[in-house]
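Example 5.3 — GDSL esterase/lipase EXL3
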Amino acid sequence: MQSPLFKIFGWFSVSILVLFRSSTEAAIKQVGNNTFPAVIFFGDSIVDTGNNNYVLTVAKCNFPPYGKDFIGGKATGRFCNGKVPPDFIVEKLGIKELLPPYLDPNLKPKDLLTGVSFASGASGYDSLTSELVSALSLDDQLKLFKEYIEKLKKISGEERTNTILTKSLFGVVASSNDIANLYYNFHLRDWQYNISTYSDFLVGSASTFLQEIYELGARNIIVFSAPPLGCLPSTKTLAGEIFSRKGCVENCNQGSELFNKKLSAEIDKLDSNLPHANIVYFDIYNPMLDMMQNPNKYGFEIVDNGCCGTGTFEASFLCNSFSLNTCTNASSYLFWDSYHPTERAYKILVSELLKKYIHNFV
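Solution (predicted structure tokens):
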């Protein structure tokens, strides 16, 4: 829906505001109003906006201090102190304020028409990752997506549903739990694969999933890379070793880099071979590493520990109202808990995404 600012032409003050609005922001607003009817996300806790509230899993965060900087200080099931990437994306694109979780029983037709998140905290490209904590696997999320499509058809008809799907912006975020937890931290796959063959397996799973949502109508897809997983406070705590001069667990970072290189190549191939597809690889590895190595550049003060509790191991149910010493100013931290970035870090990453990649879909 177009901003009310554009409707009030008679007001001089509004004209001045419009005149001085940056070209980047104006372009984003135009894309949101004219190109993307909806935003739809799949993946893990980075983009789970509350689905795990309705899933029988230990991977939950619908309790304080999660959400302490969210609207009304409410813990909504977002693994953060505030908003997560899908929220910033739909807001910046002018679609709506927040991206709701698909499993929310209070969703209305208008919510479905403008997009939802199917993501589930603790999931991954490897189905074993999800099974360990009873999170929604990508196969489960795909089934929900098919159910969602049928609901759209009942609301708006098959033709409009097809238009919504082909014009919407899709996001896929996974691999962190596979690489950091399943492979390196808990060693549940390293007996079966070395990191090279495991990254091949993950990229194969990612490729299959991307082709499946393409067959169901997705055309504009952003796929997030793995972050520098060896720099996560939880990874460093669990490793219990002397780290490199960069303060990170090098073999885990190397696993991220290897996976990312292969994922990027696979996405280029899919983008070239699938008719009318716009599939973009979004590198979050290097921006996050830069935040860790140059915190002053971004206004961060603490990048080694999370805000919640000691910030070294607390995450999900371990980050709770009994966590001692939780910081008062999360915006000065890169990490909210020992695994997830803060709202401010996410906002920086989303700005980078829109600035560098939104033109791919215009």
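Remark. The two ends are 18 Å apart (CA to CA).
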